[in-house]
Amino acid sequence: MKSPARATVALFVSLGLTFTPWSNMPADAASSATVPRPQIVIAIGNSQSMDGDLSGAIMTGSGSLSSGLSSLSNSSSPVNYTVPTGFTPPVQAANSSGLAPYTVNQSGTLYDNGASRLNVAKAGIMSVLNQYLPSMDFALEDYSTEGSTKYSTWVYYMSPNGGFTFTNTKTNALNYVDNPCYTPPNSTLSTTISSNCSSIASLYSGMTSSKYMQISTLANDTSNVGATSDNPGINDVLYAPSNLPGVWVDYGGTYVAQGSHYGATIDPAATPPTTPYTYYSLADYEANGVTVGYKTSKPTLPNPAYLITGPTNAGYVPYSNQVMYAQRGFGYYVTSIDQTTGNPVVPMTNLGSNPSSSTVTTALAPFQTALKPETNSSSTSEIKALAWQSPIAGLMQGAGSILKKLPVSCAGQYVILVTDGLPTEDSSGNSWPPLGSMAGAAIPNGYGVNAAFYGIAGNAAYGINDDLNNPPPNGNTTGSVTGALDISKTNDQALIDAVKNIAALNSGPNPIKTYVIGLGAGVNANANPAAYAALNAMAIAGGTGQEYPANNVPAFSSALNSIAGQIFSSIAVSAPVAPTSITAGSLIYTATSNNVPGSIAGHVQAYQTVALPTSSASAPVGTASGPAIWDAGDATHMPASLRQTSLYSTGPTPSSGSPPAGSGAVVNLANMGNSNSANYDPAAFALTPNTCVPNIGTILDFTFDPSYNAAGDTTSPAYPAGPSGCSYLAGRQLNWMLGGLSPNDHVQYLGPPGNANLLNLGGYVSFAQNNNGREKLLLFTSNDGFLYAADAGTGTTQGTGKLVWGWMPRPFVANLQNYTGFETGQFFDGGFTMTDAVDTSSSPQASDWATYVVGTAQGGAYHYALKLSSNGSSTSNAPATPQAQTWGVSTSGGSSPQLQAPVIVTVNGSQYAVFVVNTTTGTGTSAVTSSTLYEVNVATGQPASGTAISAALSLGSKVYVNSSLTYAPSTGTLWFGDSNGGVWSVNVSGAAGSDAGGAVQVATTNPLAPINYVGYTEIGGLPYVWAATQSEITAFGLSGGTSKILWASSGTSGYQPGSGGTLQSVASSVVMPLQAGAQISAAPVLVNGVLVVPAYVPPSGTACGVGTGYYDLFDLLTGGLPKITIRYKNNAVTNGVISLGAGIPLSPSVYVTPTGTVIYPGSSQPPNPQQPNPISPINFGGNVMNKPIAWRQY
Q1: Does 241 share its domain with 131?
Q2: What would the pLDDT profile of 746-761 be if each residue is shown by its tens digit?
Q3: Using CA atoms in the order 535, 537, 542, 546, what is the torsion angle rounded to 10 degrees?
């Protein structure tokens, strides 16, 4: 009994950024029959292949066999695996060598602890639920199946023509597996395997003394795995009762086991060769009428029926001269699948606006039960991988049925389909080999499954019919853009039905958008271009334009987060950025992103500000005037020719000496890919060639020109044509150079050096003077993987916006080949800062100083320091360009709280980057997050003493750093908040190993809640700290190592401590409350004694639309109204509240003008270019009591 095991997981998740303002509303969004929260069906297509890892091998239960089978742990059933980057084993963590057991035995129950697709999906779903259930409603669904039974599983291997051969020496270009019957010298096999192998040994010479067994090589196989069920093109195991032998071989003649050609010989070694495709038709396959038999076996099987097998879900059935089966673990099989609906696992939540934490915890419980790892017990209620086909059409129809029975959500109904395979069952219950698979190949090499996609060139090897010169007609039901499915030229009914059902969801007055993520090797665009085309066609039908490939664990998580941003048509990334000191006519800069699929583009724009106001002027200094004067992302300011000469990465770390990890010289990217260059560096690209990316040159072409090889590319001079039918835009806007921006990308202005805190250090003044005339730059990151610098102005000019340089960390370069999903990886997610630093503490000179970019990337899994060039004379206006990367710190699965940039501190004349990385072990209620403190010399990559640049922080059981960091130079103290309401301080010496153990909890919020932001300041010589949770801001006074709450404010009331020390509600005239129902959405900022708190109010429970952003303004010492004059848009702010309009408020940016201090407000809604003054500053009176110390998130 062979399982059709190529599975689909459909994950229907509607994601938004935290505190999402839903901008794509249904037409009747104002209807009273609507609800304000988005409704999301998460539907897991729990087919058997979901037990497979991301490379295709189904390993569930591996390493847990009985003692009689235990020697198979050296071959077919290994105990441990190397934990892949970004994955946390759900039951037992990896050991110090990075190994974890596939299977964990707890009180007699076996748990799947491997990196299976199902475990990856479950962890991703739980992460989504934990983050978004407070603001969205979810349901959980899986396939509707009947007759579930647990079986033992066997991996199988196909022989070369003539049978298996055994050897102790591997030969290149041949495929081998570890021999299950190998008996090392002076060793014995376990009892059952010894008996099995003794029977098999009569067929072969030297079998038990040979380490390796040669297996067949599959045609058009790019995996180099060979002819085994672990091959991603097969992705199968045999499911059978446990009374079969642990190892056996089918042999003696292969034949057609049913149908009109019953008994006919199948022999791939014959001339001409005969295969199942010789005798069976596509119609036979549709009716599940394909089986292949063998005449005998060793040992003899208990039932001759086990000599007959059928195709897997990938369409493959073994037909080599011999097949060996070796036991592995356990799995499940069902008797029937309903191809028209799904099985509700957890009903839709209905938590209303701003649910309490206890309500959310209660709602999470049934999800946690369903998403536990799979066990070998049929009685446990977690979702198991057990369906033997992939009826995506039915899964989509079932999800639609759930959503359409609910009141329409004005926040939208969205679907995310996460599939580890293509549709293999149509709406009538017929089976289909996946398009582009070995079984789907053209007759006579397969069953002849094919499809056509409007405007896409043919690729006969993968079943793609040519449709290059056939654009989609307007109003086409499957989509009216290039890549939509052309049903008239397609015979794959399973694909047709899936696309039709997705298109049906995306129709009518309340369309449901569908996003598609391709999970695992089976839908890898590099291995199967047809898979990419088919999944793209599904996304097009769902109105989202492109699929998101996830060939590894981080890519899966990144795809989910990226799709969150897709729900917006356009977002702003930060508050406006300006020079430190704004004068009349200065430029200010904005960063926004268009996230509409097919038009994805980042926009970094400059606006002219008004001249000095007169008596008739209505706008103060710093107010933008008119539309943007340039956009750094267009083809004029960032042409392909300039990208080719100005994009860089980091070379290999020097092999001599003891250089810091990740360090290296900066090298031109084009030279790294040029075999004629001295800097040729193919190792950086780590290319696995395929149809669309045959060489490194192709990678460079579409990196320099994102529209390369796409119809309508206007790049001049044009690049040579690329591989036929291959486009590399992946949803980006045609002829636009800058990739999209995520809300976690970053923008900074780089002017001349001038850090007042460094003036007393040797050589710094001369360094600053020499670089006073350097070109002003605007630095920004993008989802396209580069840190860019554009001309922001030199001398008296206002800047051209032209690209000056771009840099990509070396670890990112190898991912460029994965063009279909590179942008969704959001590699540069995280903040960065610029600092001047010195590389010696011994009599430093000007030449020892440089400016560095120090940043966080990959959400905190990577941190870096990039050294920029310096000028030797104040008359030089040369820009600061990348010279070297001084260090790079990679932490697998790491994240930094609030994705904050490292904090820069000066200790004993040297500058250190200070940051925290969190890592998590376990999942669900057993998850444990740990925090590690890093202190790294910016210029040298070393600690101040010893060799360790990091050390663990001990904050208590299951308590970790949750907030951004704040550093107080006056005391040398770092401040942060934890996940349980604690405010901590730690002295910084530049040596984390000696500092981490000294962390002290100084204050606690009331009530206890995770702290997101902290700040520190001194006023009148007295220290103060503030802490912001999601719904409350608290100010503390400090004295002698202890703290006292001065005041607190939530959306319910303002508070002060009573006589007993407990917080008591007070009148709003005493302590202002936050906006009713508000959530603190970004880091508060202190300006001239006023605490500016970004507050977002979601739509109410009876209203629809986008929420509203505010700045609530508090006098820091009292919590009351500000005591200084504040003006916005030429009006006095007297009530302590500034309304920013629709959108999520961001942290403001603070600057100085000739008339005082101003802040630029920012929200997720981009500036309106139609307004005469699209950006207006907020003016603060009073004295500059302190510099803003709290680190801004944006």
Answers
A1: no
A2: 999 999 998 988 999 9
A3: 70
